[in-house]
Design goal:
about 180 residues; mainly alpha; Four Helix Bundle (Hemerythrin (Met), subunit A); 6 helices; elongated
Length: about 180
């Protein structure tokens, strides 16, 4: 089985579980995109209606996802995806991992700025997103989109090709343990 076919078999199902960790990470990317879509709809809503109850709830939903799930996902990658790529020693993969790790740092910093805007909306302290805030949200969403593309097109297939069934099982078990779930 080619590494591409193997990755597709690992991430094909929408109902991902810890026993299929690459599929689970793919599903997380889909949730990131849905949450970014909610953030975009929130922006449009706030422009028309201000920080009404619907806007405040959407802000809470976006904050909950990026506060809890996104950091766990980044830790999954830094713990299980990046190390085998680094161990391989391929210069292109080393550069990719360095970029993806740097992206995680930039995402964390960007999230702090976006979160501050959402907190203001959630508390109804602001009724509109300032132009600088709009630019921060745009940059945050763009960074996530580019990052996800690099992981799905390059990092995940390369890492999946390096991990056997035993390693995948251990990976899924550790992910489940860290989240307090059974594998």
């Amino acid at each position: 089985m080619t590494s591409s076919a193997r990755l597709n078999s690992l991430i094909a199902s929408p109902a991902a579980g810890f026993e299929q960790p690459f599929e689970m990470m793919q599903a997380c990317h889909e949730r990131v995109q849905r949450t970014l879509g909610l953030l975009e709809r929130l922006r449009a809503h706030v422009a028309r209606h201000g920080a009404d109850e619907q806007a405040r709830q959407a802000a809470r939903d976006v904050m909950r996802y990026f506060d809890k799930a996104a950091p766990q996902h980044h830790l999954d990658e830094e713990t299980h995806v990046f190390p085998p790529l680094v161990a391989r020693g391929d210069p292109a993969m080393l550069a990719l991992v360095a970029r993806l790790k740097h992206d995680h740092l930039r995402m964390d910093a960007g999230w702090r700025m976006v979160r501050a805007i959402l907190e203001g909306l959630e508390r109804a302290e602001i009724q509109a997103i300032p132009a600088a805030g709009e630019a921060e949200i745009d940059a945050f969403a763009r960074l996530y989109g580019d990052h996800i593309e690099a992981e799905e097109q390059l990092a995940y297939p390369a890492a999946a090709a390096l991990l056997d069934d035993r390693a995948l099982g251990a990976m899924g078990a550790e992910m489940a343990r860290r989240r307090g779930a059974g594998a």
